[in-house]
Amino acid sequence: MLSKYLVLLRMKYIEMFAYQLATLVWLIGTMVQPLIIMLVWINIYETQTDYFILYFATLIFVERATSAWDVWELDRQIRDGTFSYSIVRPFHPIHWAIAENLVYKALFIVALIPVWLLLAMVVPALKLNLSGPQWLLFIFALFLGAVIRFTISYMFGLFGFWITKVTAIYSMFEAVSLFMSGRIAPLALLPPLLQEVSIYLPFRYMVGFPIDLVTGAAKEADIRTGFLGAFIWTTILG
Question: Helix H segments across 159-202?
Fold first, then answer.
């Protein structure tokens, strides 16, 4: 399995650099929306500028590390018939998607970390004072969030065997996710009822929970609840 994954990772790495401009545009384009939303919230809560800078900067990082695009890939491959090639290979098709996710996310993480370090020199809000255990919790929450988003996206993509335009249905899912995952606003700003409901849904564990670990918004009880919810959803989706 390891030798097969090394081959897949190398293939996806070469494929990624064959489309360097597209990769660069995607990297920069995904930062625009969080930055615009950040400016909106800073204008509303002028006294909490540092918090929103840290929140949305972390959002950019978490969003890239957990993002999933497999629904669009599978929808296209199933409709045009190219998914047939993956089915007849002696290796489950999901491994190709996993390898692609690993390569792309590793690239974005490697690109974003130096940018963060440089900005932290001039923006005090970006200077992180997390302990070793806090970093481990964040990385683990990030991993669980990535697994949840990937499995949901891949499952929606497989609906392409029965539905002609599964991406339209997934777009409705994404619209709910924007609000319930913390991508439009911190979960603490949601109405109390929605905050309660979000505990039982997968959205907050994909993005909002890892961010709260960095910003310090997650207290001890929230951390226990967060990891319990992430474990449950990872198990169900797996």
Answer: 166-180, 192-198
Please state whether 92 falls in left (phi above 0), alpha (psi between -120 and 50) or beta.
Answer: beta
* 177 Cβ neighbours under 8 A, 6+ residues apart: 183, 203, 206
Q: 3-class SS at 186? A: coil
Q: Residue 133: helix, strand or coil by DSSP?
A: helix
Q: Is the pTM of this model over 0.90?
A: no
Q: In the predicted model, what is the mean pLDDT of residues 9-26?
A: 73
Q: Which positions ≥6 away from 131 have C-beta within 8 Å?
A: none
Collapse the DSSP code of 34 into the 3-class scheme (helix H, G, I; strand E, B; otherwise coil) and give the result: helix
- Domain edges within the chain: 2-237
Q: What Cα–Cα distance (Å) separates residue 44 from each residue in 37, 38, 135, 186?
A: 11, 10, 31, 13
Residue type, 97: A
Model confidence over 136-193: pLDDT tens digits?
A: 999 999 999 999 999 999 999 999 999 888 988 999 999 999 889 989 989 888 888 9
Check: CB of residue 57 under 8 Å from CB of residue 141: no
Structure tokens at 4: 């097969």
- Residue 87: is it exposed, middle or buried by C-beta count within 10 angstroms (0-12/13-18/19+)? exposed
3-state secondary structure at position 46: helix
- From CA 38, how far away is CA 201, in angstroms rounded? 25
